[in-house]
Amino acid sequence: MTNATEPVLVAKDLHAGYLPGVNILNGVNIVAHPGELIGIIGPNGAGKSTFLKAVFGQVSIRGGSVTLKGTDITGWKPNKLVSTGVGFVPQTNNVFPSLTIEENLQMGIYQKPRKFREQLDKIFEIFPVLADRRDQRAGSLSGGERQSVAMARALMMDPSVLLLDEPSAGLSPVRQDETFIRTRRINKAGVSVIMVEQNARRCLQICDRAYVLDQGRDAYTGTGRELANDPKVIQLYLGTLAADVDADKSAASAAAPATPEPTPPGTVTPDEQVPTSVTAGSSAAEDLPPGAEPMSEPGAEPDAGKA
């Protein structure tokens, strides 16, 4: 991945929190260059989601700064950030359940209604299955499908940087794989992505660079491959995080039906990993074949957990 001279987004010495006098972030420094996929991992309570919310104007910033392409956006309101080029997909409650898929996407570009049709065509190129089901209500979708709608809606304003808060949380192993594939495709389409993720090992497989947050600070940084092979990171973080993810997968498998339906051709199976081969000049994993992006038919069993 080629880095331009000017970063897309820079968070410098960020201090932020929810309660007066109590900071969750205690000096976070994160940089995202054009075209990069940045992963943020760390233990629970480290400030990962708080960082995204602070950037997106949902948590009070008490120190430090955030710049977007050189413009100071510290403390800006979410609506202004969206119009300036920042997209955000929260972990939960990220769709309008009573609206159809197309109506959800229309809500994503309400600030520029005249560009709706033009952007809709672009989004359907990335998420072609959404075009076929545009009239289906979002509330009837499974967790993985809702995540696709939420990502698509955030992309309607053609953001420079997309913030993803734990996109695989609560999904079955298969849907987690599909979510990571879509995230990488969005990134390859030219959107810089900053992704907070609880599935640390999988995150490090697909990201260009990553940060480990601990106690509100960036404790480690490097390429995904470097951190995945760093003995200290493995000992302090990946072991515990991997155990948590394995426990979630075991719970999801136990809740699955005894005789699952046949897997459609091209579907990513739970045993398949996002490949670890890298592109020239990049530490990120290669994308999987375009065919590996199925979505459940109406009435199919929803994903484990809540999106």
Task: Describe, in plain words, how this protein is organized in 3D.
With 307 residues, the chain is of the alpha/beta class. The chain has one domain: 3-Layer(aba) Sandwich (Rossmann fold). Helices cover 34% and strands 20% of the residues. It contains ten helices and ten strands. Strands 6-7-8-3-9-10 form a six-stranded mixed β-sheet, with helices on both faces. The chain has a four-stranded antiparallel β-sheet with strand order 2-1-4-5, covered by helices on one side. A hairpin with a 7-residue loop joins strand 1 (9-17) and strand 2. The longest helix is centred in the C-terminal third of the chain and has 25 residues, at 231-255. It starts with 8 loop residues before the first strand and ends in a 52-residue tail after the last helix.
Tell me the count of domains: 1
Radius of gyration: 19 Å
CATH superfamily: P-loop containing nucleotide triphosphate hydrolases
How would you sum up the major sheet?
Answer: 6 strands, mixed
Low-pLDDT runs of 5+ residues are 258-307
CATH hierarchy class name: Alpha Beta
Helix amount, in percent?
Answer: 25-40%
CATH fold category name = Rossmann fold
- The secondary-structure class comes to alpha/beta
> What is the 3D shape?
globular
Strand content: 15-25%
Architecture, CATH level 2?
3-Layer(aba) Sandwich
